[in-house]
Every structure is written in C-alpha cells, then in structure tokens.
Amino acid sequence: MILYSCSIKKHIPEGERLYTGAKIEIESDSIIKNEDELKTELETVLRPEPNSKFLGMHLGLYYYYKMQKKNPGFLNRWLYKQIGEKPVYQSSVEPFEIEDVLRNRLENKGFFYSTATSAFEEKEIEASINYKLKITEPYKMERFQIDSMPSPLYEDVKKETDKSPFQKSMRFDLSNMKLERQRIDEQLKKKGYYNLNPDFFIFEADTNQYDNKRFDLFLKLKAEVPKKATIPYRISKINVFANYDLQDSTYAKTERFNNKNYIQDTLFIKPKFLDEFITLNEGDLYSPENSKNTARRLSKIGAYKYVNIQYKEVDSLLTDSLGILETNIFLSPLTKRAVRAELQAVTKSNNYTGPHLALTYSNRNVFNGGETFNISTNVGYESQFISGDNTGLSSVELGLTTELIFPRVLFPVKINTDFFKYSIPKTKTSIGLNYLNRSELYTLLSGTGQFGYSWNANRFITYQFNPISVSYTRLSNTTAEFEAILDENSYLQQSFDQQFISGMTFSFTYNEMVDANDPNQFYLNTTLDVAGNSISLLGKETTSGEPKEFLGLQYAQYAKADLDLRFHLNFGKDRAQTLATRLFAGYGLPYGNSDVIPYVKQYFSGGPYSVRAFKTRSLGPGTYNDDSNNDDVTYWDQTGNIRLEANVEYRFPIVSYFKGAVFADAGNVWNSKSNSVFDGEDKFTSNFINELGMGAGFGLHIDVQGFVIRFDLAAPFHDPSLAPGKRFDFKYDEPVLNFAIGYSF
C-alpha cells in the first residue's frame, strides 16, 4: 500500500489535488420532515463524482497512470479497460454552480430564501468540499382548487382533483406537482382525451393572501391549448388488416364481424378467432390501456411479426364536446412454414460421444386460427471411447414429438377472456415417442402426452398448468449385466417397474431478468408435480400385497415440489459485470401405490448445470462412496428424492464476445428413507450441511447476443463421499471440464 500511495502521489500534477468528494451540512430554523430523504436527494446533484476506491485504494486511477507509460503492457491495458478511471482533480469542481443548483432544489421543495455556501478542505494530495445549507421554514399549502376550464374538461378534471393526494399543510413540492399532473393526464386519457398532454396543465401558487408562509394552489390550463385537446374522443370504426403486407396496401375483401371490419384478400386468420384478442370496440372512448392490451395480446398469438395500431382523427365529425377516431390495426404475418435443422456433437461425462441430428417443421397458422404445429424428429448415435472391456459400447436414440399450440383456452365451459387482460392463455398439447437402445444393457421405449395451459399474468409472471400429463415407459431386451444391476439395487428396480405415470403439473415463474436494464434482478420458479391420485380410483390390486395396476400397468403415485431462487447483481461500467447467485431445493414424496419415485423423476447432482466440480449423476446420494465410480462405469444411478444446491458466480467481460467467470458450487441429493444399496449413507439428516459436495473453478463464456457457449473448469474442495476428516481437500489436479449451451443460472 505504501508503494501504491507513492505511485499515485508522483503522478499528480504540481498545484493539483485529488478530489475525494463532498459533504452537505444542514442548518435549519425549523424541524424538517424527512430530513434524511431531503439530504439524500440533494446529494444527487453534487458534481463531479470522485474517483472510486477499493479497500481504500484508487485502483482505477492507478491503472490510468500505468497506461501513461510508453509500454504499459497487456495486463495493464486490460485492467485499465475494465476498471480504469481518469483522475478527478480539485480544479474540476465548480462550487458556485453547485451552490446554485442546491438552492434551486431547495426552492423546488418549498424552502424559499435558503442560502448555500462552500469551503474546500485541503490535504497534501487530496481535497474535499463541504456545502453548508441554511434552510428556512418551508411554505405550506392552505387550499387546492382548479381554475376555470372549458367543458367537459372542467368536470372531468374536477372529479380527479377530488381524488388528489394533496392535503392541507402539505409542503410546497414541485416534483409532487409534476407527478399529480401526470396522474390527472393518465386518468383523463382513459376517459378518451386522445390529444391531451400533461404539459398543457400548470400549477400556480398564490402567497398574497397570507403572511405566514402559506399559499393557495391552483391548477390551470395553459393559454393557447388547442380545442381538440380539451374534448374526449370516441372510436367510430375499427379496421383490422389481418394479412397486411407492407409492399401491397390494396385490399378488396372485407368481412364484418362483431362490429369490426376484417380486411384481408386471402384468409389468414378467421375473424372469430382473431376477435377475442382485440379489446377495442366501436363506440368506446379512446383508452391507451385498451390499445396496449390489444397490441400485446395480438403479438402473443405467435403468427404475426408486427402489430401496429394507428388512430386517425375524423375532423369532419369534430364537435365542441366530442371527437371521432377511426382505428386501423395492421397485422403483418410471419412466414407460415419453417424448417429447422440442428447438428450436434455430444460428449458426456460417462465417455459416450457421438453426433445428434434434429429436424423440426413448424406451421404457424395450421387451421387459420393462429395455431402453431411443430413436429420434431431426432436421431442420435453415441459410442463409448475408453480403454478396457467397455470399449465400443454404443447408444442409439430415435425420437418423434408433435406439438399443437392453440392461442386460446380450450375448455368445456366458455371462459371470459376479458379476465386475462395482459395475454390470453395458450392451450398446449403434445405427444412424444422415444426409442433408446444401449448396447449390452437394455432397450427403453417411452411415450409421453400432455395437455395444458400457459399464460403471462404480467410482464414478469408466467403460469403453466398441465391437468393431463401422461408417460409410459417399457423396458425390454435387458441383458444379464443389467439384470444383475437391478437385482443388486431393488430401489432402482422399483423405479423402473413404475412404467405408467399419470398426473398434473403446475408451475409459477416470477422473472425480473426480462428487464435487462435492472441492476438487481430476481428470479423465482416453483413447480408442483402430482401423479396417480385420480387414476388410483380406477386401479385394481391384481396380486395381494403388490402395487395396483391400471390397464395392466403398474402406475406411480407421488408428489414432488421444486423451488428455484436466483438473484443477479449487475454493476460496473455499462453493468457488464454480474454477481449471479442461485438456491435450489426439491423434495419428492412417494406414497400410496409407490415406495419410490420413478427413476425419470428422481433428482441427481453434478454436471454443467449443477455442481460443476463433479461429473453428472456422480455426486451423492448423501455420503455414499461408489468405489467403482471411475471411467469404466457404464451406468450411474446415484439419485435421490431430495436435492439441495447453492451457486455463486462472478461474470466479467474480457474482450468482444468473450467473458470470464469465477464460481463456487455446493449441493447434493439424499433419500428420505435409507436404501440398503447405499449402505444407509444416503439418508437425509440434520447434518446435511457437512454432506454437501463443494467445488470451485473458472470459465470462459462466448456470449453472442444472448447465445452462450460455456466452458467451465472446476475442481472439488469438499467431497462428502470421503471420511469426515478427509473431505476438505482442494483437488486442483483433478479438474472436471464442463461444456454447455447457455448459462447454468
């Protein structure tokens, strides 16, 4: 620190001092209500900002001076780009200008005739400034009333001022007056005042009637406000161009439906389907809220590229009390059909490597009602490239998934879509079939089906509800090797026996990360998965003491709940640096027809989206130690019905699209009931904190406009599978390389 101090000092020009900031001292002849808030607001005008400090050192300034050298070096150039700052000297401060601004702010708050003085406090190489404010007693309101205005504006403004938050003895506050002016304008806009503007209003304070710092406040209309701004507007006609082409504005076919004109040369979306998304009606007063809701709901259909709502004033029908608007809604469709192909090179932690090909065909308006139909196929082949007896083991996967999305609610009873002002729920149906063959182990045939709804309650909140969620799994062609695995692990065998799952899922998401400009972003997702309750009413016990069956299939019965919390703190220049944190908790409870949760529903820990210092599915459960857990393992089953994880990561820019990261992860899985296969080491206890797998590492991220390719290298420093006295050991020489697409949290 002594060397650092000397290096800063020798670069300061002669006759200059580093500016270290300003303080405000308040002296008042009366009690100031909310004085701390007033002081905080006044501090926002202090200029300039001094150089930042870290642990008492001007690191940004230090690297600025380093850059002044003839050959600063790559590291100094990079650090200067990240945290470097130009010096702020005492000569940069304009105290008289700041004094004027402080007095102005005090007057805006009602403290008229206050004074402001300043004085520098100088040291050897530093200087600060103190502003001393002598604040007088503020002016307070006696009465608030509106001045004369033309009708019908006067009557509508009078109704709003009766709801005003302004109260007698309220301190004069210009910012509150601006907010009140905006509030009145917003409320009047909802009543049809299409051409009104908050700047058309003005507040005047009259102190002539009092000699004790009281005033009367009047709301007036500025002079020369146009007549059309003082009357409401009503919608006379709504034209919906349902298949609008910017290159061709000639339309011939018009269909009248529900008091709207639907204009389209060729049928794109049937008016009866499109109409429920439009909250505007002929005869309604103009409302910006209804206009925004209509635009948002139409854009959520998924069939349109652009939604543009324009209003045209009909001057020939203008009267002294009412204006007329014609509404034109222009809808530009997306390309109806699309084909997407993806070729992937996949490598897994169990040394399986190979190509995957996925093809997706989409039709964004399959039944002329805005429906989206997707059909996807995927083909994958993987082979295990390791030495030993397992060399050449392969895996073949074939999949087919169809999805049909309706941009409306399909329900036996008609639901009023006006309830969903922000966006209308979508009905999603999907059917999938997947074939997996793992050589020398087994063949797995699985089918899934879902029916449910998803909708946005507002910009941040999303709901997903699937009342029908069915999956069927059939295990066949099992080899002697795999049968031996099942014979040794009854827990695993039972989870594969539950071939039929029928239940419902519900998910709630609150996501502030949609706001990229927010420095503090919070994310919450909670999911509830319940299966087997309704079907248990139809289940039959075919063999005494054995689980019930439905249509000859043993079905699963369980409840499972997940909680995923995330917080991102964005800071630094352009908020390019992020401190990301995450906490995950999940619990599954088998009951009724099940002793264990189906294998596909169990939790696992480790991998690129979990605890990155451990391979996928290799962590836990609990303190279990699988001595055979090495590169020759072809099948891992280290799962549980309880999962806890916590992650923290610091992300920072390097150059261009390249970003760096330093992170630490902790987590594990457990079972609520001990399993003899795991020697009882898998049971969740109050000592779970000491059973967390922990690791740390660094990463390189390639972020191209939100598409992220991620390389993370991590090493464990706490391994719960080891003896209690040997768990803390930073194995930096045994790192795990993770490759993934997208951020882990």
UniProtKB/TrEMBL annotation:
Gene Ontology CC annotations of this record: outer membrane
InterPro entries: Bac_surfAg_D15, D15-like
Principal cellular location given in the protein's record: membrane
Keyword field: Cell outer membrane, Membrane, Signal, Transmembrane
Annotated ranges, domain Bacterial surface antigen (D15): 442-731
Domain of life of the organism encoding this protein: Bacteria
Record carries keyword Transmembrane: yes
This protein's record includes keyword Transmembrane: yes
Pfam families associated with the record: Omp85
Compartments in which it is found: Membrane
The protein's name: Outer membrane protein assembly factor BamA
